């Protein structure tokens, strides 16, 4: 699966490893992990998506911690063989989600994912959602200031 990046017609450009990209509205990075490989595999997935952020450690550390926590929380609540960690960045902030729904991507739009699912529990600041199809989503949402300040 590629890394979807949506760009608006205005706004600042994004500098990436591949050079200058048009102004970015949203981007999503996904790393899959096998439940059978347990917490170490989940942590590796969290590290992989967090590496997409080219920022100082004070900004990245809370996002990585959220990825680790969301993955652990998911492993406690799902029996699925394959899971994934998804980092989404948009103008509203950064979202890190761990889910056993391996088919949904940013390109699917607002109709899918945890965005419209009811919150069934809040565990250590993580919102736990269960979809009508049985999938589990564990979501952390941070704004740009909180992430930068390490909160």
Task: Please explain how this structure is put together.
With 151 residues, this protein is an alpha+beta fold. The chain has one domain: Heat Shock Protein 90. It contains 3 helices and 9 strands; from the N terminus they run E-E-E-E-H-H-E-E-E-E-E-H. Strand 7 and strand 8 (126-130) form a beta hairpin. The longest helix has 21 residues, at 57-77. It is globular. The termini are far apart.
Radius of gyration, Cα only, in angstroms? 15 Å
CATH fold type: Heat Shock Protein 90
Given as residue ranges, the uncertain stretches (5+ residues, pLDDT < 50) are 1-9, 12-23, 147-151
**Assembly type of the shown chains?**
single chain
According to CATH, what is the class? Alpha Beta
- Got a strand count? 9
Indicate the CATH architecture.
Answer: 2-Layer Sandwich
Structural class: alpha+beta
Order of helices and strands: EEEEHHEEEEEH
Main sheet properties: 7 strands, antiparallel
Number of helices: 3
Notable characteristics:
two-stranded antiparallel ribbon; 3 helices; 151 residues; Heat Shock Protein 90; alpha+beta; disordered C terminus; disordered N terminus
């Amino acid at each position: 699966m590629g890394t979807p990046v949506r760009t608006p017609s205005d706004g600042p450009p994004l500098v990436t490893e591949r050079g200058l990209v048009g102004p970015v509205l949203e981007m999503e990075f996904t790393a899959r992990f096998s439940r059978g490989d347990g917490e170490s595999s989940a942590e590796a997935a969290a590290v992989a998506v967090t590496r997409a952020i080219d920022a100082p450690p004070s900004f990245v550390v809370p996002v990585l911690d959220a990825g680790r926590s969301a993955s652990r929380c998911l492993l406690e609540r799902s029996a699925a063989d394959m899971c994934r960690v998804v980092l989404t960045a948009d103008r509203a902030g950064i979202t890190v989600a761990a889910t056993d729904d391996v088919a949904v991507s940013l390109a699917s739009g607002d109709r899918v994912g945890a965005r419209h699912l009811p919150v069934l529990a809040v565990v250590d600041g993580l919102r736990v959602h269960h979809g009508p199809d049985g999938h589990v989503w564990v979501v952390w949402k941070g704004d740009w200031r909180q992430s930068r300040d390490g909160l």
